[in-house]
Amino acid sequence: MYVLITYDVATGDADGARRLRRVSKLCTQYGQRVQRSVFECLVDPAQFELLKRELGEIIDERKDSLLFYNLGKNWKPRVERLGLNRVYDPEGILLI
Amino acid sequence: MYVLITYDVATGDADGARRLRRVSKLCTQYGQRVQRSVFECLVDPAQFELLKRELGEIIDERKDSLLFYNLGKNWKPRVERLGLNRVYDPEGILLI
User: What does the entry list as the binding residues for Mg(2+) (chains A, B) (predicted)?
Assistant: First the structure.
């Protein structure tokens, strides 16, 4: 399954900046950063559950926001890119 | 159709800041901001084409990035939210 993750982490203090780094680092293990706060990940259902649990342990639920959008298996026709984008195919190679 | 729009606009100069304001303003006409640079929009195919064209005219394609994710009609089970989020139902009322 193809999952989009977007996040807003409150970085007004040192602890927020630390959470942001941890969120970025974890998401990088599962997918590819396509914008500053947007990751595209190709995961199986078990990995997705694990990722959500791990992210939930990092963020401050009173301050930070995480959104998950599951685009399923037939995701390619669902995505369009405009402007400066890395053309990323999580099932294939990275095209610049 | 339910469309997610995410954007990174290069705001290093005054022109970038102006583009960002214009992108935000336009997206607000079609949907609801759910994170700093993420909008959820409920549009028909004609509106979606118009929105993409209008956004394409605002951004600097060499500097800015826009991503569109079409979650279709059966979008509700595809979305999960963690942390500080407005619970937004574009087909219903806004729940805080």
Answer: 8
Residue A78 domain-assigned? no
CB atoms A82 and B71 under 8 Å: no
Backbone phi, psi, residue A91, to 5°: -95, -5
* CATH code of the domain in which A40 resides: 3.30.70.240
The tally of domains found in chain A comes to 1
Q: Cα–Cα distance between B29 and A40 in angstroms, integer? A: 26
Tokens describing residue B77: 């089970």
The nearest CA of chain A is from the CA of B43 a distance in Å of 14
> Would you call A73 an interface residue with chain B, using a CB distance cutoff of 8 Å?
no
Structure tokens at A28: 């990088």
| Domain that residue A48 falls in | 2-73+84-95
Considering the domain boundaries, does residue A79 fall inside one? no
pLDDT tier for residue A96 given thresholds of 50, 70 and 90:
very low
The interface pTM score, or ipTM, of the predicted complex is 0.84
